[in-house]
Amino acid sequence: MARILIHAFGSYGDIHPYMGLALELQRRGHDPVIATSPIYRQKIKAEGIAFRAIRPDLPRIDRELMRKVFDRRKGTEFIFRQILMPHLRDSYQDLAAVAGNPDVLITHPVAFAGPLLARVRSIPWISTVLAPASFMSTHDPPAFAGLPFPEHVAKLGRGFHRILYVAAEHLSGAWLGPYRQLEAELGLKPGANPIFAGQHSPRLVLGLFSPVLATQQPDWPPQARATGFVFFDRDEGEHPPVPRLETFLKAGPAPIIFTLGSAAVQAAGDFFVESANTARLLQRRAVLLVGKDMPRPPAELLSSGIVAFDYAPFSLLFPRAGAIVHQGGIGTTAQVMRSGRPALVMPLSHDQFDNAVRTKRLGIARMIRRERYRAERVAVELDRLLRDPKYALIAAEVGSKIRAEDGVGTACDAIEGFLLNGVAASQPIREDQILD
After folding, report:
1. Confidence class of residue 145 from pLDDT cuts 50, 70 and 90?
2. Which residues pair with 5 in a beta bridge?
3. Domains and CATH numbers, the chain
């Protein structure tokens, strides 16, 4: 039995894969602990997973904060400069206090306290990424939300992207003052930029996404591998959809599902009003997943054919959809791909543009810009998606491939291999392995 500390941060789409990992590791006889934001205490403990609270202690609902987080141009900078870095010392203190003596530490891409603690205590460390954009390949460049026309910029050559990454790493260095200060106070030499190469363990990097979405590239870290998606989407122990939703699904043709995931829903704006109007224009049934404690669409927009619910497990709902309209978060994207249903993606920020471009490239989705999300335009895009049989055919093929993968099993096999090969006992992280 191995003691495994998992340090994560983010929305449901960030936390769910680590819950899936923890449950499988438990099943194999290990002792996993998830250390993350206090807002997930009940959710994680409801699954019988050990939990440790790590600041920042952000509110579960803060629509103004989420509006800034999902700003297309400045959202990523806001997260680093206003959320992560100001609380880094708190995060490190909390993690150091609860870590104990784990056999291995597994970290989320922006859980910066974890790699620092691994270096200080020589804890064997496995890093993870959730989306292909985190590898920042020049061979398969991501579509960056903050750039104008990100889909077109992603098509530019390797030379352009080498220069772009150097510039981005230089600019992001100005965000890292608290990180460098804490690093020095801990007696560590300056390591690689933690937003870029420094986020990756020198021993093992797990890409918790499907090779269908992105294949191994020559400039990925050589110790990196894509495992397949790791799925989990229960809501505090609740398994089936609520009875009223089940009744609706059985009462007519497959509906269009409109969702913005668990975080971006707080920055929805008029998304659900336009979505309801789209369903009316198309004369299609629709399910609006509006989020917990979020404003409901005006009652006059709802009807026997257009219904709104706070939440439903995507794994149970999406396969019963005619199509899915979503924001492109990696957790939602994974569930859409597994469902085998076509999608219309309206990305807001961060990796969502890249995930949208990749699913569009696969032939399972269309894409619409947020500023163009108006019922008349959305209806045109959805009509094309639903009328052209190639989208449904390719989506079904992709769904079969995703369902045939065993992402959680592959990831846990890699973790156990990391431990069994003696890395944990004999090869702690050395400073010279993580320096620029």
Report:
1. confident
2. 33, 105
3. 3-229+405-427 (3.40.50.2000), 243-404 (3.40.50.2000)
- Name residue 88's amino acid: L
314: Cβ contacts below 8 Å, ≥ 6 apart = 233, 259, 332, 335, 336, 339
pLDDT in the model for residue 296: 82
pTM: 0.93
- Asked if 228 and 353 touch (Cβ cutoff 8 Å), the reply is no
DSSP string, 177-246: HHHHHHHHHTTPPPBS-TTTGGGS-SS-EEE-S-TTT----TTS-TTEEE--------BTTB-SPPHHHH
Sheet architecture: strand order including 205-207: 50-53, 31-36, 3-7, 104-107, 125-129, 205-207, 224-226
Does residue 429 register a pLDDT over 90? Answer: no
- Main-chain dihedrals φ then ψ at residue 142, nearest 5 degrees: -80, 160
**400-422 pLDDT, tens digit each:** 999 999 999 999 999 999 999 85
Extract long-range pairs of 27-33: CB within 8 Å, 24+ residues apart. 28/412, 28/416, 29/1, 30/1, 30/2, 30/3, 30/4, 31/1, 31/2, 31/3, 31/4, 32/4, 32/5, 32/6, 33/3, 33/4, 33/5, 33/6, 33/98, 33/102
196-228 per-position pLDDT tens digit: 999 999 999 999 999 999 999 999 999 999 999
SS3 letters for 368-389?
CCHHHCCHHHHHHHHHHHHHCH
